[in-house]
Amino acid sequence: MINYDDIFNTAQDAFLHFKKTSGKIKANFLRQIASNIEAEKDKLIPLASDESNLPEGRITGELGRTVGQIKLFAQIVEEGSWLEAVIDHADPERTPAPKPDLRRFLTAIGPVVVFGASNFPLAFSTAGGDTISALAAGCPVIYKGHPAHPKTSLLVGSLISKAVQESGLPSGLFTHIEGGIDVGQELVKHPIAKAIAFTGSFKGGKAIFDLANQRTEPIPVYAEMGSVNPIITLENKLGSDIEGLAKSFASSLTLGAGQFCTNPGLIMVPQVHEKTFSDAVKKEIQEIAAAPMLHEGIAKAYYESLDKLKSKEELEWLHVSATTDLIKAHPALAKIKAIDWLRDDLFQEEVFGSFAIMVVYEGAEELLSIAQKLHGQLTITIWGEDSELEQSAELITILEEKCGRILFKGVPTGVEVGFAMQHGGPFPSTSDSRSTSVGAYAIKRFARPIAFQDMPEKFLPDALKESNPLEIWRTVDGEFKK
Amino acid sequence: MINYDDIFNTAQDAFLHFKKTSGKIKANFLRQIASNIEAEKDKLIPLASDESNLPEGRITGELGRTVGQIKLFAQIVEEGSWLEAVIDHADPERTPAPKPDLRRFLTAIGPVVVFGASNFPLAFSTAGGDTISALAAGCPVIYKGHPAHPKTSLLVGSLISKAVQESGLPSGLFTHIEGGIDVGQELVKHPIAKAIAFTGSFKGGKAIFDLANQRTEPIPVYAEMGSVNPIITLENKLGSDIEGLAKSFASSLTLGAGQFCTNPGLIMVPQVHEKTFSDAVKKEIQEIAAAPMLHEGIAKAYYESLDKLKSKEELEWLHVSATTDLIKAHPALAKIKAIDWLRDDLFQEEVFGSFAIMVVYEGAEELLSIAQKLHGQLTITIWGEDSELEQSAELITILEEKCGRILFKGVPTGVEVGFAMQHGGPFPSTSDSRSTSVGAYAIKRFARPIAFQDMPEKFLPDALKESNPLEIWRTVDGEFKK
C-alpha cells in the first residue's frame, strides 16, 4: 500500500526548507547527482540498454546528455539570474500617495509529480530534464517510474536519493514510486502536488491534463504529447539535392526505430519531384535494418496503427513490410495527394515508430492550405532555397503559428540542450505552449512570481537584497543591471 | 446576431500582420490610445462615474492610472527586451554532431478574449491592463463589454478603434462586443481564440476556466477571481499603534465601498488587543458614511452574503447596519475565535464589499494553524515589529506559499503599476499563479516562445538578428548582453 499522504507531507516539509536553499547548495546537489550517475555508468548503460532494447552506444550518448543537462541546470542556479529579480524602489515623497518598496522574484511552485518517458530511459526519465529542472527550481519531485525500464529507474532513483543524503538535504526531496495508471492518478490528484510534468502519448498526457484541471485546485500540467514534425520541401531546394535530402530524411525517420518525439512523420513534396524523391527515400529505407522497439506493446501499437491506415484507400504504400514483427519496427512509407490529406485528420495523427506519410502537393496555394490545416507541432522543418523562402513569407508566418521550433536546415531529431532551445509547441503537441521541456528555460515551469512589499532588508531573500550579494542580473527601477 | 466566425477570422488576419509589427509602431499605437482617452476625459469621467456610482475624483484617478498603464506598456514594447531573445551560435566543428544555430524569442500567442471588471470601469475594463498588455504583446483583442458600464465601454472601445485606424493598423485588432453569458461562452469556445483574460468573481472565472479546458484545444485562462487579503497583526506591533493601525485597516476596508480585489476581508488579531483594537476599528467605521455600490445587483449580493453569515453562531457582530440598502454598502465587521474559524471554510469566502471578519487568535501556534488553512490569496499583509518578524520565520514561509504579494507595511489596496508588481496568487485567487495581471510582466501572459534553427540571417526577426539592431538585452551563448 502506498501512503500518499505520507509521501506528500514529507515532500512538503522538504519543500519549505529546500525552496530557500541557496543556488550554490542546489548546484552542488545537482552535480552530486551527475557524479553519482557517472560513477555507476558501467552498470547503468547495459541495464538501460537491456530494458529498452536501445543499443549501448545510444545509451552511452544519452547518459552523456543526461549528465550534461544536470550540469547546465547546476550552472543556471549557481549563477542565479534565472530568478528574474525585480526591484522598484520606494518614493516616500510621491504624491498623492507615497510609493512603496516592491521587490519581485521567482519562487519554487511546490512538490512536482514527474512521469518519465519510455523512449529516453535516462535523459527524460528518473534523472531526466523534468526531474532536474524541478529540483533546480527548488521543488521536491515525486517520480513515477516508467514500467518499461523499472530496474534502470530504481537504480537512478537510488543515485538521486544518495545525492540528497550526501548533500545533507531532507529525504522528502525525491521519492521514487512504482505503479500503474491508478497510482499515477492518485499522484495527480493529491492536494499537495503543485505541478505535473509528463512525456508520452497524447492519450496519457491529455488524461492527466483533464484530471489536474478537475481538482479543487487546478494545477499546471506540462505534458509533451508528441508530434508528427512535418518537413516541407520546396521545389528548387529539393531538386538541387534529391539524394542528399532523401538520405537525411530517411535517417531521421528511422533513427532509434523512429521512437523520438521529433521524428518526422510527415513530409510535403512537390509533385514534380515526387517520383525521384520517393525512389531515393525507398532506396535508403531498404538499406536500413529493422530495429527492435522499446517493448512489445509499442511494436504492437505501431503495426496496429499501420493496419488502421492500410484500410484507407487514399494512401499508396511506397514501402511496407509484408510481415509484422513482435518487437522490430520495419520502416514504412505511404504517399497521399494533398487534396486527400486535407480531408481527414487521421493522416496527421502520430504513429510512434519509423513511419511517414509523404504528401504530394501541386503548388504554393495547396501548400498554404496544408499549413493552415496542420495541428500544433513540436517542430516544423522547411527546406527551401533563399529565393524560395523569400517568396514563402506567408507560408512561414503560418508555420510559425503551428510549432515551437522551426528549422531551415537539417532534421528535427537531435534536440540541442542549451539556452535557445524551445521544445514545446501548440496543442496537441504539448499541453502548454508557453513552456519548454528541454533547455535552460525548462526551469521556469516550476516557479511562480512573488512580490515583497516594504519587507525589511534583513528579511529579504539574497536575490532581492539592496547590495545584490548574489551579483545577479536584476531589473532595478526599470533598468537591467548587475 | 453576432457572427463569431467573421469576428475571429478578421482578428486572425490582423494578428498575422500585427505580431510582426515593430515595437516602435506598437508603442505609437498604444500612445495613440492613451491620447484619445485623455482627449475625451471630460466626457468619459462623468459618464463612467454615472454608470459605476464611483465619485468623479476616483474616476479621475483611475483614468490617470489607465493612461499611465498604457504608457508603461508602450515603453516596454518600444525598448524591446521583454522579448527574451536568446541566441546560441552554431559550432560546425563540434563532434560527434555539428551544433546548429538556434535563436529563441517570445512571439504573440494569438487573438485574446478579454472580459472586463465592473469595479474598474477604466483601468480593468475596455482599455484596461488586460486589453493593453495583450495588444502590447502583439495580440488582437476581442473585448466583451461589461454590462455594468455599457456606455463607458462603448466609448472607450471606439477610442481604441480610432487609434487602430489612425495608426494604419488592421481593424480586426480590436473588437468590442456586447452581450450576456451566452455571448461570453461563444467567445471562449471559438477555435481561433488563443487566450482569455478575466477579472471578476470566482464563479465567473472558474466557469470560463472550465470551459476553456474543455475545448478541443485547451487555452490559457488568466482569471483574477478575488481574494480576502488577510492582514495578520502581531502583538507588539499592534500594541504600539492600535489607533493608527485601526484607522489604516478601516480605511482600506471601506475604500471604494470595499469593492477592490485587494480589499482586506480578514484580519487576525491577538487576543490581548482584541477589545481595544475592535473598539478603535468600530469607531473608525462608524464615522465612514455608507457609499453607493457599483449597481444594485452587487449591493444585493453583499447583503445576502451577510445574511448567510448571520446564521452562523460562531460569529459575533461588532458592527452591522440594522437595515439593508438597495444600493449603499454599510460597512460591517464580525469577530470569531480562531478555533471556530479553522473549522469552516465559509469564513474565508470573499464577501464583495466593506465587510471583514476579525479572527481572534491566542498565540503563535494558533496563528500557524490559521496560515496553513488559508486559501490562495492575491495579498497577505503582516504587521509586526522586526523582532516579532524574526521569530515568525516559519509563519512567513507558509504565508508566502499562500499569496502573490506579501506586505510588511501599509494596506493591500492601492496596487502599484510598475515592474515589480505581482498581482496574481495561488488558486482560488487566480487561475494561474504564474502570471500577473498588473504591472510590466502582464505582457508575458500573451506570448509563447518559438525557436528558429538555422534560419538565414535575412529572414530572422530583428530581435534575433546578429547585429542586434533593436539594441535589446539578449542571452547570447549563455551570457546576458546588449
TrEMBL record, chains A, B:
<dbReference type="InterPro" id="IPR016161">
    <property type="entry name" value="Ald_DH/histidinol_DH"/>
</dbReference>
<dbReference type="InterPro" id="IPR015590">
    <property type="entry name" value="Aldehyde_DH_dom"/>
</dbReference>
<dbReference type="InterPro" id="IPR016162">
    <property type="entry name" value="Ald_DH_N"/>
</dbReference>
<dbReference type="Pfam" id="PF00171">
    <property type="entry name" value="Aldedh"/>
</dbReference>
<dbReference type="InterPro" id="IPR044151">
    <property type="entry name" value="ALDH_KGSADH"/>
</dbReference>
<dbReference type="InterPro" id="IPR050740">
    <property type="entry name" value="Aldehyde_DH_Superfamily"/>
</dbReference>
<dbReference type="InterPro" id="IPR016163">
    <property type="entry name" value="Ald_DH_C"/>
</dbReference>
<keyword id="KW-0560">Oxidoreductase</keyword>
<protein>
    <submittedName>
        <fullName>Aldehyde dehydrogenase (NADP(+))</fullName>
    </submittedName>
</protein>
<feature type="domain" description="Aldehyde dehydrogenase">
    <location>
        <begin position="4"/>
        <end position="290"/>
    </location>
</feature>
